[in-house]
Amino acid sequence: MIPAIEKASVEEIKQFQEEKLRETLAYLSEYSPYYKALFVKEKIDINTIRTLEDLVQIPVTTKTNLQLNNDDFFCVPMHKIIDYATTSGTLGSPVTFGLTDKDLDRLAYNEAISFACSGVKEGDVVQLMTTMDRRFMAGLAYFLGLRKLGVGVIRVGAGIPELQWDSILKYKPKYLIGVPSFLLKMIEYAENNKIDFNASSVKSIICIGETLRNQDFSPSILAKRITNKWNVQLFSTYASTEMSTAFNECEHFKGGHQHPELIITEVLDNENQPVKDGESGELTITTLGVEALPLLRFKTGDIVQLHAESCLCGRNTSRLGPVVGRKQHMIKYKGTTLYPPAMHDLLRFFEDVQSHLIEVSTNDLGTDEILIKIASDNASEELMKDIKNHFRAKLRVTPKVEFISQELLNKIAFPAMSRKPITFIDNRDLSI
Asked: At residue 79, what are phi and psi to the nearest 5 degrees?
């Protein structure tokens, strides 16, 4: 199930996207109060925007723009909204996204071709280990896509290793969809309860929310810890509510494939200009075919690298490399630039680290300070020394480390009504 446009030539893909871009600009100019006002304010004649290169003439859209003007981004009357979803905003309160019937069909198509990219086929059974409630778009998107693909879905939801294994042993899914760090808890439960997980029906797992690869596409420490024990294939998928589009790995594990019929991607530097080939920058997207709340040059906040060479799977679409980190989470520590994902992966190297939390603050000198809180049944000076030495060897810096109880860490990491565990807290004084 590879759409023809994904196997077209690079030039054909570009021409196709430019035609879709012109359609999107015309739609925004007619129906979007926000973009209509932007075009007038910036004196932008959309008829002069003909190519992907012309996009730089249009100002970017930020999460703050979206939060401050949420209602003005809607292009349809509210009675046409069928589903409501929310995503976190930069100013505290969530941003509302609405989807029409057409948008839900587009979402289902996106996930169907994305899962097919990772090998899911009609007749397979997939266990969904993520929530569909709390206005969370991802779980609904996965269900709609799997349904469109003709796949059986076991909606178990997040957490509870015992329930996950009960469903696996009863319904025999071939695929799981879940957060990779939770897989370590499933392995631990299986080992403690004499479940032969390598003899189970599970052959592949589509992983969300955490990176599985290093920048050269080699397996991360987290991925190695899983596959060293569990003989499964791990596929990465990357998406966001704002994009309503996913980037899934194929069987060659060289980045998430772009769907050119659904999204235009740019990677921009700090001046909002395209980076040079091979450089990392902030992923900036323009949605195609979205009816309710389309976005033009929206800055996602994720630092990535695009890979343009053709893939062995036959697709000629660009591929998204592993997320380096969130732009606002960049840390300058003792002259070294760090992002939380690299630190998370290092901590997963230690099996004695049951869970952890990274806190960043501003010290008396006005520079970044890192404190890592760790819960471990085997807390010791030796473990702390090993962790610090590992950081020094891999990241060239040594943060502060302290051990706390699992109970206390859980109170911080799992606040009421949170859809995801908190593993990074930024307490920096950004006014300095």
From this structure: -70, -10
CA distance 128 to 163: 12
Strands 368-375 and 400-403: parallel
pLDDT computed for residue 333 by the predictor: 83
Contact 89, 122 (CB under 8 A): no
| Cα 321 from Cα 302, distance rounded (Å) | 11
Contact, 249 vs 236, CB < 8 A? yes
pLDDT by residue (tens digit) across 73-119? 999 999 999 999 988 765 567 889 999 999 999 999 999 999 999 99
State both tokens at 68.
Answer: 């401050």
Q: How far apart are the first and last CA of the chain?
A: 52
Assess contact for 99 and 85: CB atoms under 8 A: yes
Rounded CA separation 145/123 (Å): 13
| Residue 417 neighbours by CB distance under 10 Å | 5
Contacts of 408 (CB under 8 A, 6+ apart): 375
Q: Which amino acid appears at position 418 of this protein?
A: S
Instruction: Name residue, tokens 């380096």.
Output: 324
Residue 401 phi/psi, 5-degree rounding, is -130, 135
Length, in residues, of the chain: 432
Residue 271 class from Cβ within 10 Å (0-12 exposed, 13-18 middle, 19+ buried)? exposed
Check: CB of residue 402 under 8 Å from CB of residue 356.
no
d(CA 400, CA 330): 17
Amino acid at 60: V
Strand residues in 216-262 grouped as ranges (E): 233-240, 245-248, 256-257
pLDDT digit string (tens) for 8-42? 999 999 999 999 999 999 999 999 999 999 999 99
Distance CA 247, CA 127 (A): 20
Q: Phi/psi at 354 (nearest 5 deg)?
A: -75, -40
For residue 47, what is the DSSP state? G
Question: What is the per-residue DSSP string for 135-173?
Answer: T-HHHHHHHHHHHHHT-EEEE--S--HHHHHHHHHHH--
